[in-house]
Automatic annotation (TrEMBL):
Molecular function as annotated in GO: copper ion binding; DNA binding; DNA-binding transcription factor activity
Gene3D superfamilies from the UniProt entry: 1.10.1660.10
Organism: Neoroseomonas eburnea
Alphabetical keyword list: Cytoplasm, DNA-binding, Transcription, Transcription regulation
Domain HTH merR-type: 1-69
Location relative to the cell: Cytoplasm
Name this protein carries in UniProt: Cu(I)-responsive transcriptional regulator
PANTHER family: HEAVY METAL-DEPENDENT TRANSCRIPTIONAL REGULATOR HI_0293-RELATED, REDOX-CYCLING DRUG-SENSING TRANSCRIPTIONAL ACTIVATOR SOXR
InterPro entries with a match to the protein in the record: CueR (IPR011789), DNA-bd_dom_put_sf (IPR009061), MerR-type_HTH_dom (IPR000551), MerR_fam (IPR047057), Tscrpt_reg_MerR_DNA-bd (IPR015358)
UniProt xrefs under NCBIfam families: CueR
Length: 158
């Protein structure tokens, strides 16, 4: 099938299929005499695998490793499990960061009057201004400090 058909069937955009070929994640497609790419059913299956792994948030380096394990019928499942659990740990860290971000924004919003006055603790907190209490009563970090440390990375689009 051609690249457009492979994209439709696999759910991976044409642009990303080309990208995966360029970085070696997907073998280069065979070409017709006129230069059009031709994809085999196993190529489309690999594209679905890549899409599903991306949907689970795996970075490309780990997807490459998973693809190698998937293609190796003599593999030990222990390595696959190790990769999956390491990814779960990374997801858990991101969840903690997101929770901290939500807590910080809720605290900043609670300190804002939300009226006609220009004074805004939310903007001050985001800017890093130390106008709020330097420490919370429970010993937690200043909201602006938590905001700085609660950033997460986003997976690139597939």
């Amino acid at each position: 099938m051609n690249i457009g058909d492979a994209a439709k069937v696999s759910g991976v955009s044409v642009k990303m299929i080309r990208h995966y070929e360029a970085i070696g994640l997907l073998p280069a497609a065979t070409r017709t005499e006129s230069g059009y790419r031709v994809y085999r059913p196993e190529d489309v299956h690999a594209l679905r695998f890549i899409r599903n792994a991306r949907d689970l948030g795996f970075p490309l380096a780990e997807i490459e490793e998973l693809l190698g394990l998937w293609r190796d019928r003599a593999r030990a499942s222990a390595e696959v499990k190790r990769l999956a659990l390491a990814h779960v740990a990374a997801i858990d860290e991101k969840l903690k960061a997101l929770q901290a971000m939500g807590d910080t924004l809720r605290e900043l919003a609670a300190s804002c009057h939300g009226d006609h006055r220009p004074d805004c603790p939310i903007l001050k907190g985001i800017s890093g201004a130390r106008t709020l209490a330097p420490m919370r009563n429970d010993g937690g970090a200043h909201p602006a400090e938590r905001l700085r440390h609660a950033s997460i990375t986003r997976a690139p689009p597939r």
